[in-house]
Amino acid sequence: MAKxxxxxxxxxxxxxxxxxxxxxxxxxxxxxxxIGLVEICISKQVIVEADRNIEAKLPEMLDEYRTYIKSxxxxxxxxPSPKKSKNILQLLMQTTPRSxxxxxxxxxxxx
Length: 111
What we know:
This protein folds into 2 domains: 78 residues, Rossmann fold; 32 residues, no CATH class. The chain is 52% helix and 11% strand. The chain is built from 5 helices and 3 strands; from the N terminus they run E-H-H-E-H-H-E-H. The two termini are 22 Å apart.
């Protein structure tokens, strides 16, 4: 029986960082997806936002980005709901030591 792959849901900034850089954690996650060890899950919201940001800030990369996304073939997911993000943030606040920074609710999604 095939082992289930870990699902990764990058936010827009992580997706852009992973594509634009040859180093760093975001790039390594994309490399793991390229070789099939993890599954990248992306919402339409993230794809549209990344496309818009790349077009505005890195226009020379736009064609490369679009080609890469097609070749990566991420699993398309529903846009994260604000309610689910809020619930996750509340759970983190209850279980995370106060000394650790918490991500914004927009960056939290569980599949």
